[in-house]
Fold this protein.
Amino acid sequence: MVVVDARGSYCPGPLMEMIKTLKQVEVGEVVEVLSSDESSAKDIPEWVKKAGHELVEVKKEDDYWRIVVKKLK
């Protein structure tokens, strides 16, 4: 699993970081995004669905969101 720590970054930063990371990993790998920007919890899942990847988990931690995505293509 690759972790993208985008806490402190604001939209669209966390999404852009995740997209960049997804391009670098192999199909089947999992990318976890940590984001303190609440809009990431909505924006990233929307993008993942459009892009054809799998949204594994969206979870609110103490003061940030944990968003887990599996690359499918």
Remarks:
- The helical segments are 13-24, 40-51.
